[in-house]
Structures are given as structure tokens and as C-alpha cells.
Amino acid sequence: MDTNLMIQTLQDPLGVPFYPVAFQGLSILTFALHIFFVNLVLGGAIVATWGHFCRDERWKKLSRTLAKATTINISIAIVLGVAPLLFVQVIYDPFWYTSNLLSAWWTIIFLAALIIGALAMYAFYLRRRNQEQRSGVFGLLAVACILFAGVIIHILSMQALLPDQWLGWYVSKLQMNTGGWGLNALKVSRLLHFLVPSILNTGIFLMLYAWFFKPRPGADSAYLAWLAGIGLRMARYAAIATALIGIWWLLELPSQFSFVTDHSLIAGYVLAILLIMVLFKSGETPSPYAPIAGSLSLLTILVMSVSRESLRMSYLKPFGYSIYDYPMTVDWGSTLLFLGTFLLGMIIVAYLLTIAFKAGRGEYMKELKASSES
Amino acid sequence: MYPLFEIPVVGGPILMATIATFHIIPSHVATGAFWITYFIERKALRENRPELLEFLKKLSLSILIFCFVTGSLTGVGIWFAATVLSPRAISGLIHTYVWGWAAEWVFFVIEIVAIYVYYYTFDKISPKIHLRIGLIYAVAAWFSMVIITGILGFMLTPGRWLETGGFFSGFFNQTYWPQLLFRTAMMFAIAGSYAALVAATLRNGGRDTVRRIAGRWGLSGLLAAGVFATWYYMVLPANALENLATIDYVAIMFKLAIVASILLGGYFLLLASGRGRFVNPWIGTAMMVVLFAGIIGGESVREFIRRPYLIPGYMYSNQIIGHDMAAKGIASEAERFTTDGLLPHYPFVPQQLVTVSEENFLAAGEVLVKVECLACHTLAKGGRNALPDILDGLDAESAYYLLDDLSRSYMPPFVGSAPEQRAAAAYLAKIAGGELPNATWVVEGDE
User: Fold this and answer.
1) By the CB < 8 Å criterion, does B382 face chain A?
2) DSSP label at residue A176
3) Which of A275, B189, B246, B303 has the fewest CB atoms within 10 Å, i.e. is most exposed?
4) What's the whole-number mean pLDDT along residues A175-188?
5) Coil, helix or strand for B4?
6) Looking at residue B303, what is its pLDDT?
7) What is the distance between the alpha carbons of residues A227 and B145, in angstroms, rounded to a whole number?
8) Which residues of A fall within a CB distance of 8 Å from B4?
9) How many CB atoms lie within 10 A of CB B226?
10) In the predicted structure, residue A365 carries a pLDDT above the cut 80
């Protein structure tokens, strides 16, 4: 069976319940949000653990702040990861499932690593809050587990792009390799291009933190200024490193894709350059540039997610696969159910985030004080 | 059909069951616990009892860690486990219910934002707004149950979906309403059990109040669940009831669920009547384990009574599409594979094994047995549900006739051409230590 026929055979005969482009768009959007929080988790865990081992009290305080934030970001990253995981199975089912099956044990180990990593992060945060000994080891464990999980999911994604190699990985002579221990495709430049921005985004997160808490009554402005400076330096170095790794990754891509001139990638270059310019223009104090840098970084990630999708389409085109040809029976009822839920959900989430924002800035304090005095 | 994943000795179902087991409690706690939280917070504000708010802080932190790390990751784990064990079944569900799952995901997002805002804004915002956030969480969590119950019910009774292929035809199936009401009632029982456990770790005066509330909630939930479970039982299809009566494992799990319910009923009664002072964290944990066992029993029954299907009327438990589905233009694979042979249609078969020959029949038989049997069986002696132990010494010809009769049990029929069936029988005889056939019989049959 040739690869094209194999992919057709694997595709789900039930088809999709709406235009595939909708799932593609949602997949890109939710992946971008997911990877942004993954960046914050990995970078947060690394910097928090580093800060724990520093002697400077300010680093220790920074470490506590980031440890707490990272526990929250882990949960958000997990929930946000569910959506792209769902949508990839709708439009790229033959690729995702085959890749998972070839590395079946690793997909399970991936989850175990995440659970251990997340619990270690909580242990790191809570032990330090309660001033217990030997908390650093939990930080190190969290970093190791999260990195390890990142490597596995990267390999699963890469394997999914190489369908002409699947049979070679799975079959040897008369035997099928049903053990599920295969790990067959690793591209270091691509992996690093996902990992190194963790430091960039964590740096921007620290800048945003300083910017956000600066107006709060009783804020420690000297500490916040120091924090913003540290964040800015991290972001600058990591932005340059990410750009260089990006060039390395581009040079390694198959030349027949001509991906250097991909439209979304060009938009990505522009945004990345703008971000670097903002970072170098911003002063080392809590600065109004922080929200601009944060927005630009998020936007760059979104555009890079579009590029990632565009690249996937380039990889799969030679096998005659296009998601736009997926058999479809439009199911308006369930589509409207989702759209209605989505709109309602966004309104509720916006309401909750507004409360969180105001509470963080201490805006309810006066109100509470007045009511307790009365 | 995808590459196969073989787990020696214990088999795939155990992996699935293990992950599901670790998901069941946190997911149910995540759904139920905030109703009781809302109730207690209202009481604390109305009666001005700050010690109850302290309890709520502790409860919500424990929910954060327990449900939103372990619970959500094991939830994703079930997805991954289903992917590596039954990719075509999870694919079928996703291609039918993607918008349902996407809507459920929106509720997850609301839940996670709400619980963090709730936990970190104790004493920082007005009590009225804080209370409202708790309610938002509780309602969102319940709505996630409203959706997933439709998909779970579909896996047992797909209803009119088999004729229309439409989302709602399968969603509002015959077991949907009793199952939703049953799960809603159980949600309160689980919340009661969890609140009683967290209350047992308290040292202050709120402990007895919380215990009584937990007992009342637990008992009411459990009694209502009993009523709805009876309704659920009454609408089960005939083959499910037959499986319940004839498969030993299912009957044991059913009894386990009933015994756990009785024990929990007594526990809740003592708590509700104020005689729950003996409950320390160990006893609270032990009762959570009892609850856990009961849920495993109930969920196992639900999983097993749909045999021989993963999606009844459509896909067998070995992921072969067993019936036509006109609404989607899908033809039965079982029929096609019986006519043309399965091996030419399996994309991951070694090239030399596409056609059964006198040289390759044992290797080809191995592929066929793995494709059709690995979902439930292991292939080495001493393993769980191991074919060599079940078939013990069976010769190839008897194995051939046994394969003919599979569909008379709760197993899917053997699917494949006659030479493929003989090759599978030869391989079964080999692993069972029975007499091997001669190669000509395998390829040409009795003629």
C-alpha cells in the first residue's frame, strides 16, 4: 500500500461536522495560547529554581513569586492544551494517531512526567511558602520533567509529519514492532525554537508583573524596579537567541518547501524585529512598554502558529493530503451549540479576569475597609 | 487501522482502567465540590462564621491541586490511553462530537479561571462577588457533566445516530437522562464525602458543622442516585442486560458498586446525625477509597456491558466497522474483509504477509490475531485473559471452528478470508501448544 493510499485508508470515514478551516483556525489560535503558557511554565520553573539557589534576597523573593505564578500557569497550560489536541485529531487524525501508536509508551510517560512535574512545582511552591527545607530539589525535578515532556511531544509532532517513514519504523521483515517504544524523529533546532522563548516570555512576564503591581498601594517600588530590570535583560538575551535559532531552523528545512518566503513567516519576522526593538527601547524600570512587549510576543507566537500550520501543510502536500478535502456533513446544531457556548464563556471569563485584575491592584480594598468599619 | 500497541502480561484494558481510576475521583470532586462550597459560604456569611471560610480556603486549595493538576492531566491521560489502545474508536467519537467536546472545553476554561480567582480573592473582594464566583464555577462544572454524559451514553446506546449520523440524535439517547440525573445525584454524594475528609483535617469549631452538612448532602445524593440508577437499569438494552447477567467480571463489579453504596450510606447517616466524631483523616480517606471502589465498579459495568462493541451497532471492540452506516455512506468492513481478506486492507502489514502462503502463514496468522484480539487478550501464557491459557492445547482445526462461533458469545466475529481464518487458527494453535496444521490446509482448505 503506497503512502497516499495508506493515509486515505486511515482517515476517519465519519468525516467532519463543519468546514475543516474552522477547526484549523481554532487549532492555530488555541495552540498559540497553549504554547505561550507552556513558555511561562518552563521559563517560570527554570527561573524560580535558579532564584532559589541564589543568595541575593531579591532573587529569593522573585523565586517565590514565580513559583506561585507557575503553579497557576501549569493548570492554564494544561487546559489550553486540550483544545489543540482535540482539533488536531479532527483534521490530522491519520498522522497524529499513527505517531502516537509508534511511540505509545512515550505518550503515557509524557503524561506521567507532566503529573510529576506539576506536583513537584506545587511542592516547591508550598514548601517554600511554609519555609521547609530541601525545596530546591522539587524545583529541579519540575524543570527536568517539563523539559522531558517537551522533548517527547516534539518527537510525536515530528513523526506525524513523516508518513513515508512510518512503515520503515514499524515493520522489520515479517515482524510488526508493537512494543510502542519507538522514538524516531528529533529536530533540535525546531525543539529549541519552542523552548528558548520560555526565557523571553518569562522575562516579559516579570516586566508585566512589575508594571501591574506598581500602582498598588504599599507596593515595594525598589524591588519592582529591580524585577523589571531582570525581566528586561532576560527578554533581550532570549529574544536574540530565539532569532538566531530561528535562522538555524529555517536553514535546516527541506529546500523544496521554499518556506523562507512563506507569508506568515514574513509577518513573523516583522513582529519579531518589532519586539526586539521594543525590548531595546524599553528602560530598566517598570515601564509602559511592558504591555506592548507582552502583546507583541503573544502576536508573534500567534503568527508563528500560523507558520507552523503552513509548514505542516507543506510537509503533507506531497502525499496528496489536504484538510480542505476532508469529507464533510455540516451539523449546524452542534456548531451553534459550540459557538453559543464559546461566546458566553468568553464573556464570563472576561468578567472573572476583570475581578482578578481589580483585586490584584487592590481596588476593592477601600470598599472592604468601609464595609468592615460600618 | 493503525499500528498496534501490545502491552505484555497485563494487556491494554488494564492501562486504560488504571488511568481512568485515577481520573474518576478528582473529576467528580471537581464537578461536585463547589456546590457544597457555595452552600457553606452562604451559611458562613449569613451566620457570620469566619471559621467556615477558613475551611473553604483549605477545601479550595486542595481542589486546585487534586483536581486541576492530577484530575485534568489524568483526563488528558484517558484520551491518550484511548488513542494508543483504540484510536479508531476515539477518532469516531471525536469526529461525531468534536463540537460537544469543544463546548465542554469552554466550561473547563471557565472552571479554571473561576477557581483561581475564587481562591486568590478570599478577603480581597466583596463577599457577594466572591460567592457569585463560586456559583459560576459550580454551574460551569455541572455543564461539563451535561455534555460528557451525552458522549458516555452514546458509547452504550447510540440511539438514532445509527440512522441519521447527527450529533443530537446520538447525544439525547435512551440512557442520557437517567444517567445525567444519576451522575448529578452522585456529584452531591462525592462532594459530601470529600468535604467530610477535608473537615476531618480541621482543628477549629467549623468541623462539626461541615461534617453534618457533608453527611446530609452525601445521604440525599446517594438516595437520589439509587432512584435514578434503577431508572437507568430499566432502560438498558437487552444485550447489555444479558452481559450483566452472564459475564462474571461485570456481575462482580456491579455487586462492588452496591456494597460500596451501602457502606457509604451508613457513613453519611452517622455524619448527618452528628455522630461522625470518630471520623479522622484516615477514616475519611478510607471512605474515599470505598467511594472510589464503588465508582470503579459502576464505570466498569458501563464499559463492559456494551460488548462486543465500542460503539454499538457500528464499531466492534477490535475497532473493525461491523455494520453499514448509510447516513454517512460507510460500508461494513466486516463484510468487505471477509470477502477480500483483511490483510490487504491493513496499511501496516509487512509487505510479505499481504497474502497467506505456505511459507508465511504463521506470521500472517500472528498479524491477524493481533489485529482482531489484542484489544482484550494477551498472547503469552500467564497473562491477563491470555489466549494460550484459554485455548490450552487446542489444535488448529478446532481453533478454526471456534473462530466461526465467536459471534455467538459477547465477542466480535472473526473477520477475514477463509485462508486468513485458517492462518489465524494455526497461529492460535501454535501459542496454545496445540497441533499445528499442514501448510497446504492453511492455504487451500479441505478441498
Assistant:
1) no
2) E
3) B246
4) 93
5) coil
6) 80
7) 43
8) 101, 176, 178
9) 14
10) no
Provide the domain count of chain B. Answer: 3
Read off the CATH number of the domain in which B342 is found. Answer: 1.10.760.10
Residue A366: pLDDT over 80: no
Binding-face residues of B in 103-122 toward A, CB within 8 A: 103, 105-110, 112-114, 116-117, 120-121
CA distance A289 to B236: 62
Chain B: residue whose CA lies nearest to A361: B124
List the beta strands (DSSP E) in B81-207. Answer: none
The 10 Å CB-count burial string (b at 16+, else e) for B78-97 is: bbbbbbbbbbbbbbbbbbbb
Over residues A254-301, the pLDDT tens digits come to: 888 888 888 899 999 999 999 999 998 877 665 788 999 999 999 999
Q: Which of B105, B124, B136 has its CB closest to that of A348?
A: B136
Chain A residue numbers with beta carbons less than 8 Å from the beta carbon of B18 are none
Structural domain includes residue B129: yes
Domain of B224 in residue numbering reads as 189-235+237-304
Answer for the pair A15, A93: CB distance below 8 angstroms, yes or no: no
Q: What is the pLDDT, as a whole number, of residue A285?
A: 65
Question: Is B403 among the domain residues?
Answer: yes
Mean pLDDT, chain B, as a whole number? 91
Domain boundary among B256, B285, B304: B304
Measured CA to CA, the distance from residue B257 to residue B297 in angstroms comes to 5
Chain B: give the shortest CA distance to residue A229, in Å.
27
ipTM of the complex: 0.93
Same domain membership, residue B75 and residue B207 = no
Is residue A325 classed exposed, middle or buried when 0-12, 13-18 and 19+ CB atoms within 10 A define those classes?
exposed
pLDDT at B282: 92
Residue A372 — pLDDT band, cuts 50, 70, 90?
Answer: low
Q: What is the predicted pLDDT for the residue at B138?
A: 93
Chain B 208-237, CB below 8 Å of chain A: which residues? Answer: none
Is residue B210, in this structure, part of any structural domain at all? yes
Task: Check if the beta carbon of residue B217 is closer than 8 Å to that of residue B192.
Answer: yes
Say if the Cβ atoms of A174 and B370 lie within 8 Å: no
Q: Is residue A172 classed as helix, strand or coil in its secondary structure?
A: strand
Q: Do B92 and A12 touch (CB under 8 A)?
A: yes
Cell 507583541, located at residue: A296
